[in-house]
Amino acid sequence: NAGVMQNPRHLVRRRGQEARLRCSPMKGHSHVYWYRQLPEEGLKFMVYLQKENIIDESGMPKERFSAEFPKEGPSILRIQQVVRGDSAAYFCASSPGLTSNEQFFGPGTRLTVL
Amino acid sequence: AQKITQTQPGMFVQEKEAVTLDCTYDTSDPSYGLFWYKQPSSGEMIFLIYQGSYDQQNATEGRYSLNFQKARKSANLVISASQLGDSAMYFCAMRAMLKTSYDKVIFGPGTSLSVIP
Fold first, then answer.
1. How far apart are CA A25 and CA A96, in angstroms?
2. How far apart are CA A29 and CA A92, in angstroms?
3. Residues 6 or more apart in contact with residue B36 via CB below 8 angstroms
């Protein structure tokens, strides 16, 4: 059973470009969470999604950031018109549901904005 | 509001010695879970140990044990017989466990552990 997959592992973008980060949850998991880790900091919650639904996006910046988890395919975190402050590690986690004790984390995508 | 505090930004421990990493938390939820994750220099997040707020016994997983003191709202991680491979960032985290709620995880700022040969 493959773990949580994230790609790309490293992404370099110039200011103003778009960044698309993908997350494939573990098989059987229908809950996906995105976290951001700025340099020298802990992880900060961004958004929680279930299939085709955004449940909580309270941690997402109001502009330029969006997330989706379609019925088929991976979850996508999209950052439009990236700025240098978006440089961070973005982690995706998945869980099978509300009663699980653990969220399983992917390896993360390290975004660098030049 | 939920909050996790880790007051030790950096810790050193001699190889083969035990070390305690501090974590205190604040929550008004009656039911919650506490986690510790390890993040080595390679960057991935590795789950170490879990403690439920209603668990009667402290959680243990191999060389890891969680010293859970509910009244003091502390959930310290104890690593016994430290190894060089234990050098990493360690994050304490918490999540509400209400069946009607979703499980957003709140992370502390982390403690950097360095194991000295």
1. 9
2. 12
3. B21, B23, B48, B49, B64, B66, B75, B77, B90, B91, B92, B93
Judging contacts by C-beta atoms under 8 Å, the chain B residues touching residue A93 are 45, 105
The residue that leads in pLDDT, A103 or B7, is B7
| The pLDDT value given to residue A4 | 93
User: Which of B37, B103, B108 has its CB closest to that of A98?
Assistant: B103
- Percent of chain B at pLDDT > 70 equals 94
Q: Which of B82, B4, B96, B84 is nearest to B41 (CA)?
A: B84
CA atoms within 13 A on the CB side of B52: 10
Residues from chain A contacting residue B35 (CB–CB below 8 Å): 102
Helix (H, G, I), strand (E, B) or coil at B84: helix
Q: Read off the pLDDT of residues A33-72 as tens digits, 9 standing for 90 and up.
A: 999 999 878 899 999 998 889 988 989 998 999 999 999 9
